[in-house]
Amino acid sequence: MKSVHFIKAVFLAVLMSFMLLAEPLLADERRNGYRHDGRHNVTLDRAVKNARSRYNGRIISAETVGAEDGSTHNIRILTNDGRVRRLRVDPSTGDYVKPRRR
Length: 102
Known about the structure:
This protein is of the alpha+beta class. It has two helices and four strands, in the order ααββββ. Strand 3 and strand 4 form a beta hairpin.
């Protein structure tokens, strides 16, 4: 009977150790703009950082807009050659989405 209690105590100690080690990793992901809440895995801030590293230029505007088919992060960048790039980012994946035709 004592061995069963000992095994349970060791199991709980190992489980708690894993939980304590996993929390800083999850906090680091949240701090870097990635969330795992089932809705938005990529925050607007992270999408802007990704766009800025992909396209050289200055961010003109950035916003999250909801639509019937889901929300998107809309980002406008003024490139170094004077052109304005309009980007749409899927918040659940971080992928760039084709712009809608006007």
